[in-house]
Fold this protein.
Amino acid sequence: MKRDIVRPQVSDVYIAVVPGPGEGGQTQWSVVLINDKDVMLTHVIVNASGKGKVDGIEKSTATLRLFLGDILAKSSKQVEVLLEESFALNNNYWVSFYIGSDIYDKKYQLSAGEVDLNELVFAPVLNAPAILIK
């Protein structure tokens, strides 16, 4: 039965970690969901959590469950602000959405230590530098 379920592949939907100005001249990192498709994503839900070891001690963040609603074609929505304390963790984002009557889902991972100003690439739709997770 399970093998009969068709799971459509997700493409042109990304998680981006975008630097911006923060308090006191610090960089603030925002997690953004990008829809680079030519169609709207509807009923978008994101689960966000972080896990890993810091100084040999297992740490984890609370799991955020966010309903983002609809995301228009070639647009984006902010998911969360990523706190600096979370950079040492593996941050996971599970994104689920509809296109028409088909449901899609994909897991994205921002690995520990991956947030680095030297690792920025050009992010579609945002037209800005970001860490892009495909």
